[in-house]
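Pasting as-is:
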Amino acid sequence: MRHNAVRPLELHTFDPKPVVNTLISAFPGMVLSVEKVGVGLWSTAPESRAPSHGEFRIVDTDELSSEPTPRLNGFWPDGSIDAMVDILIEHPLPGAEWVRGEDGPWIVAFRQGVSKGWALERIRQRHNIPREATLAIGDGFNNLEMFSWAGYSVAMGNAVAPARARADEVTDEVANAGVALTLERWFDH
């Protein structure tokens, strides 16, 4: 692990091999990548849509799926997000759940039962924080469950439509300091 890396309190991983096998069978040409916590990202091609913090390595699917990971990304450059979602509904990912990307045919797979809302609930309980004192801010499909969990939820102005619909409030866009505006209001009262 790099000396300046933040260490997670807990790490919830899954075996990516069955998921990788399902995805490469269902989506020919899919680019896959896995997060290597504290190290970087391993990918099957340079076109990975996943953000990389640290080392980036091109590997084959055997090496990619050789050890547990908290996150597996799939990018289908030759497909559409609608077709991808339809196929994923017909081909469940073994031991994992997934959330679709906001701007193209990509998904993030993660251990079954783990979500932002689930993790935040564990933190809330650990620190004895009342639910009504919790605030969630986000803009993507991966925030929907967290919005349902939070005492109060705020979607960014540029958020996907389902996030805006689920949130208690919609603030300005990220580029217009929507988070700062929300936090100023939240902590002023």
